[in-house]
Amino acid sequence: MKSTDSSIRRQTNFANLLTTCRLLLSPVFVFVFLSDTFWAALTCLLIAIISELTDLFDGMVARYRNEVTDFGKILDPWADSISRLTIFLCFVHGGQAPIYLVIFILYRDSMIATIRTVCAYRGVVVSARRTGKIKAVVQATAILIILILRVLSYRVSPELGRVFLTVDYVLIWIVTLVTVVSAVDYASGNWSILKRQMTGGA
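Now predict its structure.
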């Protein structure tokens, strides 16, 4: 019983609490976003900043405190996916992103999550890719810029607001292209592992 309690405490460390915070902020973001006011837009920007900061620091904290856990390795990418997909879907609702582009982001995250789960179940580690980190930075940057423009749009003329909307769409196109490249690179870079898993090899 004591060993079980110790294991639970070890898995539930400060780094994982930061990651969990990112998950909990996602539904809050949706609720605030739907308010559609200047102060709501500003609050959404602050929530996004806090979310990205937790993503930046949870891994650093885990390594510094020597608290890297299997649970954290699973929780962190899941929280990233939930957090950013939530925001992108809100952008679709707000007319700041087309659904036909955001859907590719959803497909990419679902594909990689499935691959990781299957391989982890079989005791195989699927290596991370540099394009995955680039994708995360591009997505986070685009999200913050779009939210900043959304805040500003409440204080500018409709003409400038339309310019902001064009910028939003360009950013979403860039995000989608980088996301698709990341998905292809992820699959090709781990193809030998994936092939063995699909064929039942060792």
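Residues 158-189 form the longest helix (32 residues).
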